[in-house]
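Can anyone check this?
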Amino acid sequence: MSSNTKECKQLQPRAIFGINGKVENGVRQHPVTQAAIFPLGNKIAIADFKNNTQEFVAGHTNSISCLDLSKSGKYIASGQINHMGFRGYVIVWDYETRKEIGRHDLHKVKVQAICFTAEDRFVISIGGKDDGSVIVFDMQTFSPICRQPASRAISGNALTVRPLHRNPFFFLTAGDRHLRLWSILREEKKLYAQDVQLASKSRQFYCVRIDKNDEFAYLGSGTGDIIKIVLNCCDKDNVTRPGSSSGILGAFGTHNPRKPSGRDCNRYVNGVRALYVLEGGRLLIGAGDGEVQLVEERTDVPLINFREYPGPTWPYLRTIKSTRVSGRISSFVRSTPEKFYICTDTNEIYMLNIQSWVLKLLRTCHAKAVYFITFPKNYAAVFATAGHESIRIWSSSRKQELLRIMVYNFNCAAVRFSQDGTSIVSVWNDGIIRAFTPMTGRLIYAIPNAHNKGCSALAVASTGRFIVTGGIEGQVRVWKIEPYRQDLVGVLKDHSGPITSLDINYLDTEVISACTDGSCVIWDINRMTRKQVVTANTQFMSVLYFPTGVQILTCGSDGRIIYWMVYNGALIRELTASKKSSVNCLSMNATGDYFVSVGSDLQVKLWDYNSGDVVGVGSEHASSVISAAYSPCGKTFVTGSTDGSLIIWDVPEEYWGKPNPPEGPSYSLPKAASKGKTVAARVDSGTRLKPLAGENINGLLKATPKDDICCVECPPCAKKEGKAADPFTECKIVPDVRKC
């Protein structure tokens, strides 16, 4: 590089949308700072929801599978899942310094669950189905002291672990036909276990909660009932008190007073996934179908009366209040005595006030990968993202989701705003092109069977009169868009693999397509012919036109960014963005001075286009980054990753860009005095035409209340038409012209 290389700065995120809600009991709240702690990919995120700030703790080599915070708030413990044949790490972190203070790799493949015992004395971790062991990590010596198989040969795997509140030497493990109470002997470096007596009941337990007095434990099962057991502990040698054992009191469901006795017991759909024991014997229960209930034990009927009940589950719980959230509930976190955080596997966090029973959606993000990001023309206040089953519109200033358009069971491959902002055009992997209104998400039109194997890329012309789509089969198709009709203009065939990216030049005369077969083709839209082809030994992932349309920029799986000349397809420059991984997406600012690249190495890089230097680097993502978009103002850009997280980055002020070419001095001719009458022009060039009244993306921010999300479900596009009474109607034949 030259001696005048620009200084590389650390890019700072303005806002981060991301959470991994699929980790059971993965969300925690710090008792002092009130910060939320949760896993995100292979990193631990520490988020302050009040100030909307977020930071990461990195150290794991693969996705985090479990997480726990000590009661004092001093330590964080996390475990990971690894590839088959490799070991899973358990790492203990210091919260204040955000640094690692101890680790071990004694588990195979996966760490299933982890917890701190009382007084922050030990860290208990249990392995997955390939490991099946319990390991005790001493927090005084920061080393593991004992290891033992978690379950007997006749029972299943342990799935969760829960410590007692008052005694640091006891804990409880539960799982598939597995429920054991454990005692730690520190001096002898041993573990004693005792199976809890469950009578004839066989359950798969997903969650465990113990009351504050360590007398009873409540377990949520896969059959949808609550198992209550008495612990009768604690004795170090015998685990339970001499002459007694821990055993079941009953399997409880909710009472339905409208049904007769024997049929009045309701169980939770998809099992009980989360529990919390409240004061006064009340329970907060979260089910697998998203139902949240506040229940209490019945006092009108003694428990002994249910021994003759015909079913295995007794209707001993009375429902006080009930509500529902989206997705399976994975975590309950008590923020204040009245407020709870509820996390779901759809990566959403709700706030529930158990006194007023008001449910509020706090944080959202995509449940799966973010495939595409786009901004409207000359409007940086909102942006759209495409993901699994949904298109989402976000506010850059409010840092929240505004609109969600749902199409179930399909993935949105790309989304674009029309030039005037009156529609959102999207392509889906079911082969349908769908256009929606930007404020209400209403379906405007749909083009079925646009591509046989599904759509993969999209470009919209500046006039809005035609769009270009790319398919998985390798074809590029041009569509003419009219208010009441959409027609196929032409099919361009040259590629032999899926189309990954499309871009139209500013004159709407050319479109360039990038493909995984290692070629990029420049097409003439007016003549529907091929103009130029560029090839390289790579799988092209993204392609861009320079704002003036004289050069193109490509990136691919070899980690290189290449400049090409449009006129003759000559290679101008090669930049090495990554030596080990692919570059997945490129996005350039409006002036063409700077562009951003993202890749599978988790890094976001800001480049100077003319010098080819990296001027900024961001490394806040926790998984592969596959999408990016520069804002029209050039002051921010947005990136999305495979775990569903979005990050809005601030661009340093010196890299905002200048007009290209720079604005020169303006000259104006003197106005001549008019002689005689002024006659209005007979021909209207279109400047006096008023825009049609309707929805526009500019009004979405004002129309959406703060902390509110509009969710719209798209209707099915291919409806079966009923057989008409008129025989000519079915064949689309009009025998008489007067009937038209």
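Reply from J.R.: I decoded it. Confidence is low (pLDDT under 50) at residues 663-669, 677-692, 719-740.
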